[in-house]
């Protein structure tokens, strides 16, 4: 192995070791050293913003208090909660409304009869769904690692967390902001908004109500969605918050005739710029380098790429190391490519590694 790859491998191993020890499981772990306050708008002096994807999903079960706290103490600027509603219309944070893979509900006999099959965004899904549980019932469940075969190290935390509300994530972000001396933003995503509106549990109205109740500012909250209609509903409330149009790699937003490829054209980007401040393309849409980043910046949009991970199976072939799909590869090299192109943010399961890579830009 040449010196450069060896150095990167050592750094990655160091980050992995630090991740397992630097932040205790409890949400009351000591804060990292203070750094200057930063707002979601604009770059940090040290480079692109680092966004903790569902917290620090690479090191803790996603969407738990531990995951969010870990992300901030590792240096993340924003934390991302995915929003779905309960039966009594409270916004909770789960990757999907189907919770069989992220909680212990499958082993709870009192909820066995709730297992069902639904059509969500045109796809049949079988399991247990947040909209069939009250918040009080969800509180009795405990969280588990969603990808146990990929991140078996995270299964040690199974059963230690509980389903959080969006309000609790806001409260946690503000507490972590005070502890760290940095302004930590929440980055909520409306999940399946068309589906939830169709069953009488619209996301946007409740999201707007929570934002207003907490008086969230542009420095504290950026709202994202894959569905333009959801962002238009938020924009109509005139909250003064930046909006982020997420973009897929194929097809188009559910319920919309427009295709993602057309949304990423110069004309499509100008249309997005009429209601949003950011676009969030899959990282693969930016390599090999094309015109998307330049066209977006020309339209006045910032670009945040998703989702960066450290395991080989999620890395480009040139950056893989070892033999297993879940071995850690050269994640630093992938960040270097995207940072070098000029992205404005990265969404990552491993914010500590993203921050270390960002710090390397100054060397």
Task: Name a few traits of the molecule.
14% strand; alpha/beta; three-stranded mixed β-sheet; eight-stranded parallel β-sheet; 363 residues; 12 helices
Q: What's the gist of this structure?
A:
The protein has 363 residues and is of the alpha/beta class.
Structure description:
With 363 residues, the protein is α/β, with parallel strands linked by helices. The protein is 31% helix and 14% strand. The chain has helices at 3-21, 65-73, 135-138, 166-180, 193-198, 203-214, 228-236, 260-263, 266-272, 292-298, 331-341, 351-359, and strands at residues 49-52, 78-79, 82-85, 91-93, 116-120, 123-127, 185-186, 189-190, 223-225, 243-247, 278-281, 302-308, 345-348. The strands form three sheets. Strands 7-2-1-13-12-11-10-9 form an eight-stranded parallel beta sheet. Strands 4-3-8 form a three-stranded mixed beta sheet. A two-stranded antiparallel sheet has the order 5-6.
**Strand line-up of the largest beta sheet:** 7-2-1-13-12-11-10-9
Helix content: 25-40%
- Low-confidence parts lasting 5 or more residues at pLDDT below 50? 1-39
What is the tally of beta strands? 13
Mean pLDDT: 90
SSE pattern: HEHEEEEEHHEEHHEHEHHEHEHEH
Largest sheet: 8 strands, parallel
So what's the overall shape?
A: globular
- Measured distance between first and last alpha carbons: 23 Å
Helix run count: 12
Please indicate the percent range of residues in DSSP E strands (runs of 2 or more): 5-15%
Rg, rounded, reads 20 Å
Which structural class do the helices and strands define? alpha/beta
